[in-house]
Amino acid sequence: FTQQFWLNEFLTAKNNAVFGQSPTTNRKVMVEYSSPNTNKPLHLGHVRNILLGHSISEILKACGNEVIKSTLVNDRGIHICKSMLAWQKFGNGETPARSGLKGDHLVGKYYVEFDKAYKAEIKNLVAIENISEEDAAKKSLLMKEAQQMLLDWEAGKLDVIELWKMMNGWVYDGFDASYKMLGVTFDKTYYESNTYLLGKTAVEEGLQQGVFEKEIDNSVWVDLTADGLDRKVLQRKDGTSVYITQDIGTAQLKYDDYKMDESIYVVGNEQDYHFKVLQLILKKLGKPYADGIYHMSYGMVELPNGKMKSREGTVVDADDLMGEMIASAKSTTEELGKVEGLSEVEKEKLFYTIGMGALKYFLLKVDPKKKMLFNPAESIDFHGHTGPFIQYTHARICSILRKNTITRQSLEDSLKGYALHPLEKKLIQEIYLFPIKILEAGKEHNPSVVANYAFNLAKEFNHFYAELSVLKSDNEKEIQFRLHLVEMVATVIKKSMLLLGIDVPEKM
């Protein structure tokens, strides 16, 4: 390619206020993510899920799609009843206001309390009655009470419903605060308590079409062995539905609501088989939206000390993690002396921006399909493959631009017959890739494509800046061109990072 080709491409990009944004495709996409249980607060695993869902939504919007961000809240079931029962037994009327705990943390505390009491009961039964743990579990009065509470909830028993509403209300307030901190929103919230019976219609439909089969004991199954899968129960003999049945019903509800072309589920890779089965069943039922289902599968996040378990209270709490990241950003930034001249309000905003940028970038720079090890200390490094490195590059460019005036009419003039330095050309080539990388990330459902692109662009700028002076030149034409060039680098860095849900400061 000639130098003039690259100069023309740069001029086109610079004059395009929506550079990177593709034309409208008239495609509608729903992205379902977060989908928490209302028996515990959000943890590190949820954070990866939420950030992936939010980022792929923003990327697909930039690809020209209409995007609906949705979440399905798992607000019913035996696990919810465990928290409710434990609060009833051990809570002494404790509330978020009285305890000073966020509502989701308070409810999560009683989920852990249930598990402790249940294990103690099992241990006791084994010792007293000299029976196996398995037999003791069958005799557990605590578990029987939780199961009875679920039956009472399904029967609409007033006091159980009131307790459920109150405790779920606490959790939703807690979730909202965490979502606000993460900077994510949803266009539509579905609740499992409203959708868990929807699959029953699909079961009848499948039986009528001969796709499903009913056993003598009244249970309903689908045989997928010819497709390389197995036989799957869709309705138990007592008439109750299973998760896959609920998902079939909810898939229909979503399509009825939005008639989308693609329905993306951001769910961990332990559910890979589940989504193969879901899509295949919907195809067999002749659903027009079956081919549009996509499982955005991602690997688990592990810590240097291993896996997390909610029941045992060994999870990395999302709120604690965000607080620690902001505190870490504060200490690192202050050590480097990068807060001089900032007011207290500006400092607090900067620490939040850097801390959250570090967390989000670290979780998004890895291909979603890979499991990953989260290292908080590594994520905050200002010189590594991190969010703060990219944020600092943006702030550095803003500092250059604050001290110098760009004459707007100068760009076309400065390009005429301009002899590009190889490092200038490399920066233009990186900028040129921006819309291409967005489309690639959208097609692959992979935000790490954009994350790594932003890092490469920042790295190229730093190489350029170390080798060439933006301002120390006798040639005014060269100064003006380089000011336009670095301004465009800052614009593209900012746009890239926003697609990841990350803000970039102008001072740092």
What does this structure look like?
With 508 residues, this protein is α/β, with parallel strands linked by helices. It has 20 helices and ten strands. It has helices at 3-14, 44-62, 78-90, 96-99, 103-129, 133-139, 141-154, 158-182, 192-195, 199-209, 243-258, 272-284, 318-335, 344-364, 376-379, 387-402, 410-415, 422-444, 448-467, 476-499; strands spanning 28-32, 66-73, 188-191, 213-214, 220-223, 231-235, 262-268, 293-298, 301-302, 372-373. A five-stranded parallel β-sheet has the order 3-2-1-7-8, with helices on both faces. Strands 4-5-6 form a three-stranded antiparallel β-sheet. The protein starts with a helix and ends in a 9-residue tail after the last helix.
Topology, element by element:
Layout: H1 3-14, E1 28-32, H2 44-62, E2 66-73, H3 78-90, H4 96-99, H5 103-129, H6 133-139, H7 141-154, H8 158-182, E3 188-191, H9 192-195, H10 199-209, E4 213-214, E5 220-223, E6 231-235, H11 243-258, E7 262-268, H12 272-284, E8 293-298, E9 301-302, H13 318-335, H14 344-364, E10 372-373, H15 376-379, H16 387-402, H17 410-415, H18 422-444, H19 448-467, H20 476-499
Parallel strand pairs: 1-2, 1-7, 2-3, 7-8, 9-10
Antiparallel strand pairs: 4-5, 5-6
